[in-house]
Amino acid sequence: MPPLALAIVFASTFMHAGWNLIARDQRGSNILIRALFSISIIGLVPTLAAEFSGVTVLPVAWGYLLVAGTFQGLYFVGLSLGYRTGDFTIVYPLARGLPAVLVALADLVGGNPPAPLGWLGITLVSIGAIFLPLNSFREFTLARYWNRALFWTLLTAIATAGYSVADSAAAKVMSPGAMNALRYGLYEMFLSWAFYTLFLFVLRLPAATHGQAGWKRTLIVGALLFSAYGLVLWAYQLSTHTSYVVAMRQFSIVIGVIAGALIFREPARRLRLAAAVTITMGGVCIALAR
Question: N or C: which end of the chain has fewer CB within 10 A?
Answer without folding.
Answer: C
